[in-house]
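Hi support team,

I'm opening this ticket because the web form for multi-chain structure prediction keeps timing out on my end. I have pasted the exact lines I submitted so you can reproduce it. The total is 226 residues across two entries, so I didn't expect it to be a heavy job. Is there a limit I'm missing, or should I split the entries? Thanks in advance, R.K.
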Amino acid sequence: DSGVTQTPKHLITATGQRVTLRCSPRSGDLSVYWYQQSLDQGLQFLIQYYNGEERAKGNILERFSAQQFPDLHSELNLSSLELGDSALYFCASSVGGARIQETQYFGPGTRLLVL
Amino acid sequence: QQPVQSPQAVILREGEDAVINCSSSKALYSVHWYRQKHGEAPVFLMILLKGGEQKGHEKISASFNEKKQQSSLYLTASQLSYSGTYFCGTEERGTGNQFYFGTGTSLTVIP
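Hello R.K., no limit was hit. The queue was backed up. Here is the completed structure from your submission:
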């Protein structure tokens, strides 16, 4: 158990819908990272937040957005869902975050299926 | 730029050694290594921050050749528990914390 929690574990929805994935980092960690893992594109970095502010952006679609709240939990919002958005979404956390040089602890992931 | 890993897959017998390579076309600031077992989240193994740095513990170690933008993960005297998919992750210089995972190497250790 890494100490990072993600909810829900599984999510089934329809195309065009909007969903919110939630992540609670380990106690004391200030950075949260979001990743998408799909069969065709592998593991992709989406975005990093550090202490409430966006720190780094990867291959995140405009239909996706994220935020980190004052209590440091983070939410990833996915809208206008397409079949290709079906994937495993991981959240990770680390203590610091000035650069991505920290040990990252991954949550168990949320499996999203878009029908 | 997604780094390229080689080999794509390897099968070992217990006790054998393996090397997994990670190569990028961009100048790198750091290289991370992770192992992911089927159906589970990736687990951090190590980070290499400096050119030439070699880190490791017990029977898993790694090196980072900054000039060649390459890193290698060394698994010695492999155990059944080493089975999984290994990913390198690279942070590119001058890109504002852009982070890319490699293509992955599937490692299977058999008795």
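A quick check on our side: Chain A has a mean pLDDT of 92. Let us know if the file doesn't open in your viewer.
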